[in-house]
Known about the structure:
By secondary structure, this protein is α+β, with helices and mostly antiparallel strands. It has helices spanning 26-35, 38-59, 69-100, 165-176; strands spanning 16-22, 104-109, 112-117, 122-126, 130-135, 139-146, 149-156, 178-179. The protein is 42% helix and 27% strand. The chain has a 4-stranded antiparallel beta sheet, with helices on one face. Strands 7-6-5-8 form a 4-stranded mixed beta sheet, sandwiched between helices. The longest helix is centred in the middle third of the chain and has 32 residues, at 69-100. The protein is elongated and about 75 Å long.
Amino acid sequence: xxxxxxxxxxxxxxxxxxxxxxxxxxxxxxxxxxxxxxxxxxxxxxxxxxxxxxxxxxxxxxxxxxxxxxxxxxxxxxxxxxxxxxxxxxxxxxxxxxxxxxxxxxxxxxxxxxxxxxxxxxxxxxxxxxxxxxxxxxxxxxxxxxxxxxxxxxxxxxxxxxxxxxxxxxxxxxxxxxxx
Length: 180
């Protein structure tokens, strides 16, 4: 989905509906990842794994009433890593990657979403490959799939300053995608 120039320039031939540009902020990225369920998909297996490790430690007790604390402590560490530290790392890495690409121009058109980076690198996703969107007071988070890869667009509402742009983007997303 990458190219050397603009992947899909937008314009009247593609039915351009809305165009805006800017950079995503860390709080907006965190809200989008949370709304899309990324943290839940990390925390749930982390909590289940921590519980399983701790339970194995308790079940492996010799029956004398004493519990080996090493597996219980290992379960607590495992849970801490996956439930607390992993989501923070996901946000910080995603934010660094977003900042490395610089300011982006986003075009919502009749045939899909186009995002062009300052360096000329761009991506186009047709509506057919996008599955759902999430709305928070700050952002629209659009989620789709291309093959085995999940694509994720964060559309900050603060970058749509003209009157009616936020409502227009919401109406377009509602008409094309499933609201989650």
